[in-house]
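Deliverable D4.2, example record:
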Amino acid sequence: MEKLERLIANTEEVVTIEELKTVLNKPNPKAYIGFEPSGVVHLGWKICTNKIKDFLACGFDFTILLADWHAYINDKLGGDLEKIKLCGKYMEDCFAAMGIEKEKVRFVYASDYVNDSKYWELVLKTAKATSVARVKRAMDIMGRAEDEAEKDLSKLFYPAMQVSDIFYLNLDVAYGGMDQRHAHMLARDVAKKLGLRPPVAIHTPLLTGLQAGSRMNPTEFKSPLDDYSLGSQRISSSQPQLNPNLGSTASPSDFKMSKSKPDTMISIHDTPDIVKKKMSKAYCPEKQIKGNPVLEICKFVIFPDLDGKSFLIERPERFGGNLEFSTYTDLEQAFIAGLHPLDLKNATANHINKILEPVHVFFEKHPENLQKMKTAGILL
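Output generated by the structure prediction step:
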């Protein structure tokens, strides 16, 4: 697989393809993804770790920013910086557990450079080049609405800091989920005003919460699968969709798998029985593709991890016997043709448990930070 094909596989948006081609011609291109250390890691991170592996395979110098001060601003873990930093160490373990070799990436904390005056110079220049209205529109990168900018002044600093992270780290590519789109587009606009290199923005889908479809009209919910009709890899520039339950324009983060909604997400620490129980309750209407979180997990988490093996659905002979699928497209077609949702759910749970097995083994061997998280009351 060529580098470009590998990097855009299973992405929802690339801005722009031509700029990415130019970056790929550089000897040591730089990319990053940023996370707030804020709690338990869920299955949706597998999309990120798979894409990080793609970046590494394509020769990128890759940075994982553990944005501790950003988490403080965003009131995560009660604004306790010590707990936030502890969570950062736990997250480093999570990346390793999901197959990211620590020596091949660079973990950076915002606290590593907040004392550098050059960083704050970038923050001020970014702020000068950005209107307050534009900053408020970018508040969804924090999982917050525009009006929450009034809560305290620091909330308005956050988008300017995230943009300045990109400049300070001298990045060629800013990678994240679709919830980070506003920040990355702001960085591109500000870069042009300041005479800096605009970062290429690569965005992957956000996994929908297991019950999200059942809470809303699927015809008004834009699922990541809407841009992947029958397994295609069309790059889109999706716009926020109206959600009648919210009464306003919904951002991609409104329906994503989230640790704040434990019953609708799969933690990487969930036991096989818990995974099966959660999947049994997942929204999966018969023959429906759009807004179907079970199919999203199959497409974006399981199939990229099969490594040439088939997706196996085990069934008794009286119900038609076992089925095997070598591509997601084939599975989707079978579901449209009448594959029973329960068969799909059971198989998906089995494959998820296979993915999580080495994660559990890792933490059995390296329990220290996970145990500290439990002792601190961050994880149960």
